[in-house]
Structure formats: structure tokens, C-alpha cells
């Protein structure tokens, strides 16, 4: 058999970079699929591509699986193209579904032969609390809802092969992108933070450690689940 490896999409920044770091520290060989170049000191191997380019994705996956048995997959990369429904853009919808739903399915498809041969696999999809509903996100929330549904379908299909499939749905996470769009001193950011029961934004590491659990050998009896890592936002607001 070929050496094992873990694929993480969108591993050059934010949540993805934290996941790459945690898995590399655990001893994994990590392959990062991202259109952005990672920092020079980032662990693992980076393969640059745009996940919306299906031909490039298929070619990259063929290369990755030729050299390694991919037994762990984290589908983290995603795009969020926002607009109100009265300005709905079908092209944006198609791009969102291609990156957020179709690319994860293709990645899993290419990695399954090695997982099935070994009788072991771990797949974690990164969705979003927005799947429960959030303004301006017809395409984004729809794609993340589809990814949650796909998680349940794959879990049922693959359970007897020793492969678990789970989902993490983050709430507000203090990534570089979040802080660029939501400066800490802005009223919108203050309103977001006031609505989080634990009283703070999440960190990329909060997500990475939850992903790490689902990827572990010890998580073999958990499959088809969606874990909301949101500081309590999915259950309500703190009473005043």
C-alpha cells in the first residue's frame, strides 16, 4: 500500500490553516488543496488549484491519489457570494454549488478506493451555521445545507466500509477574512459578539480541534452528525 495522507481543502488561511497545523502536529502527511499560496513555513504539501475548475480538480486528485492513500479528507474550502433574493444571480449560484458541494463530492469519490481497501476512512465536511438561515445567503446557505444532507447520505453509504462522515458547522470565527469585513470596533461586529452566548468570537483552532476529534481513531462510532461550533448561537441568546 502507498503511504497514508490527509487532504484539507482551503488550507492556506484561516480555519483550513489551523486544521493543517493540528493534523501535521499529529503526524499526518497533509496535502493542502487551495488556490492561494500558503505561508512559506506552513507544514504539508500545497497543490494549487481553483476548486470550481472541475478538470483541474480531477487532474490534481489523480496526482494526489497516485502517490498516497488518502484516508482522511477535510472539505473546508468554500465561497460565499452574497445578495438579496431580489438580486439573485444564477451564475453565482452555480459557482457556489460547484465549490461548496460538487468539489467535496468529487474529492470523496477519488479517495474512496484507498479508504475501502484499508477498511478505514474519516471524512469531515465544513458547513456553516448559515445553513439554518441567514439573510443574503440563498446560494451560500443552500450549498451548506446541501453539504449537511450529503454528509448524512455518505455516512449511510460508507458506514460498513469503516468510513465515518461528519460535519462541522461553524458560527462566527475570527479569521483574517472575518476581521477584514467586520472590524473589531464596528457596530456590526459588536452586535455579532453580543449575540454569542459564550461572549467571544470563535477561533480557527476551535474548529480545528473539533475536526481533529472526528478524524481520530477514537471517533469510529460517530457518523452522519453535524456539530455546530458556534458558541451557543444555535440554541438562542443569553437572557438579559
Overall SS class: alpha/beta
- Report the uncertain regions: none
Distance between the termini: 58 Å
CATH structural architecture: 3-Layer(aba) Sandwich
Number of helices: 7
Count all strands and give the number.
Answer: 7
What percentage of residues falls in helices of 4 or more residues? Answer: 40-55%
Biggest sheet details:
7 strands, parallel
Bin the strand percentage: 15-25%
Principal-axis shape equals globular
Task: Tally the structural domains.
Answer: 1
Compressed to H and E, one letter per element, the order equals EHEEHEHEHEHHHE
Tell me the CATH topology: Rossmann fold
What oligomeric state do these chains adopt?
Answer: single chain
Spatial strand order of the main sheet:
3-2-1-4-5-6-7
CATH class assignment: Alpha Beta
Question: Can I get a quick summary?
Answer:
It contains seven helices and seven strands; from the N terminus they run E-H-E-E-H-E-H-E-H-E-H-H-H-E. The protein has 240 residues and is of the alpha/beta class.
Amino acid at each position: 500500500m502507498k503511504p497514508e495522507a490527509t487532504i484539507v481543502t482551503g488550507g492556506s488561511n484561516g480555519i483550513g490553516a489551523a486544521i493543517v497545523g493540528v493534523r501535521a502536529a499529529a503526524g499526518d502527511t497533509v496535502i493542502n488543496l487551495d488556490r492561494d499560496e500558503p505561508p512559506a513555513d506552513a507544514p504539508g504539501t500545497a497543490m494549487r488549484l481553483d476548486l470550481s475548475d472541475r478538470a483541474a480538480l480531477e487532474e490534481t486528485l489523480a496526482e494526489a491519489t497516485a502517490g498516497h492513500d488518502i484516508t482522511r479528507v477535510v472539505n473546508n474550502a468554500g465561497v460565499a457570494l452574497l445578495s438579496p433574493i431580489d438580486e439573485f444571480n444564477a451564475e453565482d449560484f452555480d459557482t457556489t454549488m460547484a465549490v461548496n458541494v460538487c468539489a467535496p463530492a468529487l474529492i470523496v469519490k477519488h479517495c474512496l478506493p484507498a479508504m475501502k481497501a484499508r477498511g478505514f476512512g474519516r471524512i469531515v465536511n465544513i458547513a456553516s451555521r448559515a445553513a439554518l438561515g441567514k439573510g443574503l445567503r440563498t446560494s451560500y446557505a443552500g450549498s451548506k445545507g446541501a453539504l449537511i444532507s450529503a454528509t448524512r447520505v455518505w455516512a449511510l453509504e460508507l458506514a460498513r466500509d469503516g468510513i465515518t462522515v461528519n460535519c462541522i458547522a461553524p458560527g462566527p470565527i475570527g479569521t483574517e477574512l472575518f476581521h477584514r469585513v467586520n472590524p473589531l470596533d464596528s457596530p456590526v461586529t459588536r452586535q455579532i459578539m453580543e449575540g454569542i452566548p459564550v461572549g467571544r468570537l470563535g477561533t480557527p483552532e476551535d474548529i480545528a480541534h473539533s475536526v481533529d476529534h472526528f478524524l481520530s481513531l477514537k471517533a469510529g462510532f460517530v457518523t452522519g452528525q453535524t456539530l455546530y461550533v458556534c458558541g451557543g448561537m444555535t440554541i438562542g441568546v443569553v437572557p438579559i
